[in-house]
Structure of DUF2182 domain-containing protein:
Amino acid sequence: MTGETMISRAGVKFTPARLALVLGGPVALALVSWIYLGLMIGDMSLIPGMAQMMMPGQMFSPAPLFGLFVMWAVMMAAMMLPTAMPMIIAYARMQAVDRSRGAGWMPVFMFSGGYVLAWAAFSLAAAVLQAGLTHLALMSPMMMKAGSGPLAGGILIVAGLYQFTPLKQACLRLCRSPLSFLMTEWREGNPGALTMGWRHGLFCIGCCWALMGLLFVAGVMNTLWIIAIALYVLIEKIVPGSQWLTRLTGAAMIAAGVWMATA
């Protein structure tokens, strides 16, 4: 094997050049999301409806709700799309035979789009939750974080306990095993690819939703925590035998939550 790393399925060669091409769309979307997220963190006035968020009783107005949704959707695309790359690459390998028959690259883009769409649905729920907590004066509209120790502690405790649940472990196993997911969830064509991406996104949400709750504690626009959570999710997905890390993190969050709730 020379400088090229060949990935093959049924004798179809998958060169690094083809791999770069198929990942072009997801990588570009992730980069654009990170850039826009960075701009919003640097200047929160770029979040649609931000001015109205500062006014009492306006959180459920269309502009603030839309702004929160955009903020969360961009943030989730930036954080989670890179962690889905192992699954997207595995899907691209499985598509190699169909591409040799002229199927093209569109199914891979559709798979990625379905994944992003699932996290966009999560973003809508997160935006409504943040609007509700802010409306009840439990979150600061400017700092975008829980304003009381008991609330922050409760969020940490819930997130920590979820790390030990069977649902967390089941979803994490599917995220760690791309081949197992693809073999059981395979669907043909572009609509099938979109559905598969959507379903993978749902499993990923089942694995990570509680971790996103940490942003309500540290600050939704806290750069360090955004990066830290994204890296942690990636480690959970790709490091073999990282169950100990999941449990250790859960125990640490529970302990920190109890301390914050009672301090």
